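A reminder from the course coordinator: this example appears on the midterm review sheet, so study it carefully.

Given structure:
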């Protein structure tokens, strides 16, 4: 399907923009967007009164498929946690190293005339790392 990757990238970018505005409205300060360390990535890193949040954003068009948050499976969780550890060890992350770490998911479903946003704070706990 021609243009499929570019449409998916545009949808993902729009979802991340919306997620940032949503989280800022909840009192979060955005530290990073699309943080990369090697082949690992975190969509959004924020900080608020509860600690530092590593946020995976999943955006989908309305469909009968599984909800977006169901696509953050164990392999993705492991990759986010590894990237978070690298971030916290980096110069950018060291000031936040003593804060509580949370792994959140923001799921966005685009419908014809609106976007539904669901935020899942502490969506997963990295007990197996």
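Designed residues:
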């Amino acid at each position: 399907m021609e243009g499929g990757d570019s449409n998916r990238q545009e949808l993902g970018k729009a979802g991340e923009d919306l997620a940032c505005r949503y989280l800022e409205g909840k009192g979060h300060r955005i530290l990073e967007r699309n943080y990369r360390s090697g082949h690992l990535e975190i969509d959004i890193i924020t900080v608020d009164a509860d600690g530092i949040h590593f946020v995976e954003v999943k955006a989908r068009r309305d469909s009968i498929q599984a909800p977006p948050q169901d696509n953050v499976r164990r392999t993705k969780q492991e990759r986010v946690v590894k990237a978070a550890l690298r971030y916290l060890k980096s110069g950018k992350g060291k000031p936040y190293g003593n804060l509580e770490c949370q792994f959140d998911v923001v799921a966005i479903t685009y419908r014809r005339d609106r976007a539904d946003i669901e935020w899942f704070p502490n969506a997963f706990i990295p007990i197996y790392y």
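The radius of gyration is 15 Å. The mean pLDDT is 89.
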